[in-house]
Every structure is written in C-alpha cells, then in structure tokens.
Fold:
Amino acid sequence: MKRLIILLTAATGFFCSCHNNAITGRKQLALFPESTLQQQALTEYQSFLSSNKVVSENTSKDAEMVRRVGTRIAAAITKYYTEKGLASELNGYKWEFNLVNSPEVNAWCMPGGKVVVYTGLLPITQNEAALAIVLGHEITHAVAHHGDERMSQGALAQGLEIAGNVVTSNNPKANALFSNVFAPTAQVAVLLPNSRNQESEADHFGLNFAAMAGYNPREAIPFWQRMAKAGSGSKPPEFLATHPSDEKRIAQLQAHMAEALSYYKPVGK
Structure:
C-alpha cells in the first residue's frame, strides 16, 4: 500500500504541475517557480560574464548590433504579450544582451532575459536579419519556459525511477529490468522528443517575433542552410537527437513563413 501511495502521489504531482503555456497553448510540466529560475539565471549569468571576454559596444559594431537586435525583439515580444493581456508572463524580465569573444557557434537566453551571443556565430548569420532569427529562437526558449520544462522532466524522471525501484525492491529481476530499461526509455521516448518539440516551438515563434521586430523572416531559410553546411558531418538519427533534422527544420520554417510574413513590417536599418 505504501508503494502504491508513492506512485499515486508522484502521478498526482505530475498532473497538478502541468499547465497550458500562454503563448504556445501546449501543456507543460512546471515544477519550479519562475522567480527562482530567474534568480538562479542572474547569478549564473553574472558569473559567466565575469569569467569570459565580453565585447564592448564602445569598440565593436557587432556588440552594438547584438544589443540593437535583441532590444527590438524584446520590445516586440513585450508588445505582443501586452496586447494579448499576458504582460504578467514577463514579470521579472530585465533584458541584457552581450556579445562574448569565442569561436563557438552559439547563442542562448536564460530566464529573465539574460542573453549571450558568441562571436563565432556572426560569420554564419552574416547579416542583422539572420541574427534576429537566432535571437528570436533563443528568447522563445526563455519566454516559453522551456528551461523549467526540461528541469521538471528530468526531476520527474529521477523521481519515477526512485519510486519504481521502491515498488520492485522485493523482486530482484523486476528491479534490474526497471533500472536497465527506464533510463534509456525515458531519454528516447520522453526527454528527447520533448527537446525536439521545444526546438520546433522556438523556431516557429522565434520566426514570428523576429518578423514583429521588423526583420525579414525569409532570412531564416538561408541562415539554417548555412548552419546545416557548417555542421555537416556525422549526425545521430533524428529520433536520438535533441534537435530536428536540418531538412525537417527548414521544411517547418517554410510552412510557418506565411504566418510570420503576416507580422512583418520592414523598419529599415
């Protein structure tokens, strides 16, 4: 009975912690308070900046461009959320945009709007609109609470594994089977597909947000083609990858292009 209660409690916690995302409409697992994640993000962000070479806007047009593009997208997102009566979703957001000197081809956004772009990304973006596609994508991860969702999924997976081991503790064969099967099954069947879902959401809504900020969403296609070429080589099958395949990603972006273009109003340089 105690073991059954443990499983029922875990299942109840799972369903009670799910909610519909205000923008994507998808049901998400959220076990961690947004305010806590933002505070942790701020600490990590400050630590990262202090231990890496931040490019100054006073000496670099690229750094100024990162701030300009990010600020425009943040303003577009704020306006969009406000018009939908969802301004509270961005409570605690204090946007920061920094360019860091690193050959890594990457960018990211933490909860609370803490953004970093690596200089290694810029030769592939090549222009301001493509950079906007990247920042729209990364910012969507934050405002869509993807970080909370991934952490919650990981915590739930660990909790269910513990509960399962308790339930099968008196049956060594069943216990061994559960331990050997659960972890890879959870990774392949749950965590990785959800990661790919998040990437697709970030592509979709990031495209819209870039367009709302006045950047041509059509730049997404040649940008991701350049990214695919830069990352060509040995890749795992899509069902074992955290991201959609390059071909699938581009096809999905093309499918969303008409929607993004409906938001697009060029504002010039």
Q: What stands out?
A: Residues 172-212 form the longest helix (41 residues).
